[in-house]
Fold DUF1876 domain-containing protein.
Amino acid sequence: MTRPVDSRPQSVKEWRLNLYLSEHDPETTARIVLDTGDNVVETCAEARRNPYDSAVPEIGDELAAGRALIALGRELLRNAAGDIEAMGAPEATPPAPLWSPRE
C-alpha cells in the first residue's frame, strides 16, 4: 500500500542534487549542485583523457562525477566541522582522507 507524499514523517528531509556533465574532448567536467533547503553547496571536478587512449566518454563521466562527489563530501564535512565549532564544541579529530589530495 502506498501513502501520499505529504504524509511523510517530520524527521524525513529531502535534499536535491543535480549533476551536470560537460564533455569537450579530451576533458570532461562535472558540476554538482546540492540544495538542502537551507543551503546550496556546489562542487566541480574534471577528468582528462590521455591523448593516446581510446575515447570512451563513459569513463570520463565516471571519473569526473566521482571526483565531484568526493569533493562534495569533503565540503559537507568541512561545513559540519565549522557548524560544530560555532556551537562551541571542542575540536574533533579530522576524518581520514577520502581520496588523495589530487582531486
Observations:
- Residues 15-86 form a domain with the Double Stranded RNA Binding Domain fold (CATH 3.30.160.240).
